[in-house]
């Protein structure tokens, strides 16, 4: 069930063009799935009339906290990233459909590019019944790779950077693990070209694959039609029918 919740920022970690905010609520949190998102109201910003959709990075039900990894893009997200500890944020959550949980004997690979790493951590925690979890995380350069220790706590992390400043040089689809690792399920989130390349590789190798789309969203409930994606089932609102889609539903 969706809820409108008032949170307070209790911790903050800043990165180049991004910030990790830990938000605490005074009431119990609704159940969330990895891959779902929240809509955050941006107060005190004349140019941000609408809420901003942000992936759920982590959830702690015992302490009533959620973590949001936010990339600075425009005025709204810049304002959120600049918010100080102690500030209040009004949030609608959870929204959208999350990733499909794998079977216990699946060999899964979680692929994230840039800020697309955000929804993968909480999903990995929901998959803690698996024997092992592998992450493949990519960025343009080393500074784009954030919170690696968080991911290493949940599984093995493989890295690519476009300039070779960390991990293997190149795109995530060029990492050497594709030649050696047995994979039967892929979950991906990141820039559209990256996800399309991962989807192409998955189809060629007959690997089941889900991707989390990052179409521009406004209302978060399928009313404004800003985030429509043309699929095999017709035009669908990413915020309501997604953001997670199996690649077999997409016209890629």
Poorly predicted runs are: none
Number of strands: 16
Spatial separation of the terminal alpha carbons? 32 Å
SSE ordering: EEEEEEHEEHEHEEHEHEEEHE
The order of strands across the largest sheet is 4-3-7-1-2-6-5
| Fraction of residues in β-strands | 25-35%
Structural class: alpha/beta
Largest sheet: 7 strands, antiparallel
What does this molecule look like?
The protein has 252 residues and is of the alpha/beta class. The protein folds into 2 domains: 93 residues, Translation factors (Elongation Factor Tu (Ef-tu), domain 3, Beta Barrel), CATH 2.40.30.10; 105 residues, Rossmann fold (3-Layer(aba) Sandwich). Helices cover 16% and strands 35% of the residues. Strands 4-3-7-1-2-6-5 form a 7-stranded antiparallel beta sheet. A hairpin with a 2-residue loop joins β1 and β2.
Explain briefly what this protein structure is.
The chain has 252 residues and is of the alpha/beta class. It has helices at 75-82, 120-126, 148-152, 177-180, 192-204, 238-241; strands at 3-15, 18-25, 37-40, 52-55, 58-60, 65-71, 88-95, 108-113, 134-139, 156-161, 168-169, 185-189, 208-212, 228-231, 234-237, 244-246. Strands 4-3-7-1-2-6-5 form a seven-stranded antiparallel β-sheet. Strands 11-10-9-8-12-13-16 form a seven-stranded mixed β-sheet.
Provide the fold topology.
Blueprint: E1 3-15, E2 18-25, E3 37-40, E4 52-55, E5 58-60, E6 65-71, H1 75-82, E7 88-95, E8 108-113, H2 120-126, E9 134-139, H3 148-152, E10 156-161, E11 168-169, H4 177-180, E12 185-189, H5 192-204, E13 208-212, E14 228-231, E15 234-237, H6 238-241, E16 244-246
Parallel strand pairs: 8-9, 8-12, 9-10, 10-11, 12-13
Antiparallel strand pairs: 1-2, 1-7, 2-6, 3-4, 3-7, 5-6, 13-16, 14-15
